[in-house]
Amino acid sequence: MYNRNLRKPSPIKNIFKFSSFKNAGTIMCESTLEFDACFHLEYSSSITSFESQPTGIEYQMNGKTHRYTPDFKIVKGNGEIEFIEIKPSKKLTSLTFREEFECKRSAYELKGFKLLLVTDKQIRSMPLLENLKVINRYSSSTLSGVHDLALGHIRACKSLSISDLAEKLGLIIGDCIAACALLIKHGVVRTDLEGGLLCEHSLMTEA
User: Fold this and answer.
1) Tens of pLDDT along 101-143?
2) 81, 99, 150, 176: which could join 166 in a potential S-S bond, CB 3.0 to 4.6 Å?
3) Quick one: fold of 16-123?
């Protein structure tokens, strides 16, 4: 077992920092793809915490011992721990990469864990990623009376568009989107984040 330290300055690598409220700290990433993956991990209701570059392992391939550090370790709500490897989908065309990943996956399986492969096609699926970034933009805001009123209207109407909600609250559309984004972040309302960008037509329902 060994650990890598991304906080140590490197002249050959750019480090990207994701501010995580879920983890009450900063997640260090080695690529923009890993950075984008953080939005999914941060706002997944099934994940309670996650960390980048967790403790690595050794695995066997072609009679040799190799070292490997996954990109993320996640802890799920049921206590299950999984590890994630982030790669561009074009990597999957390489037979060598597939063989290496299978050896790594098998090594984790022997330890009782899952190693999952996640690609850019999953991470950068639109409009989901863009909507998660909108939610993240307003995640540091504080819940207020406006949010209580918004939730009350949504609860009473069962389903309410952002434009109708804005009219009831006397808000401009942009401010109403911000209010709804914060309510989504707190898990009290929901909308179809994969069906379209958050806008005046988005329907809000109680979670």
Assistant:
1) 999 999 999 999 999 999 999 999 999 999 999 999 999 899 9
2) 176
3) Trna Endonuclease; Chain: A, domain 1 (3.40.1350)
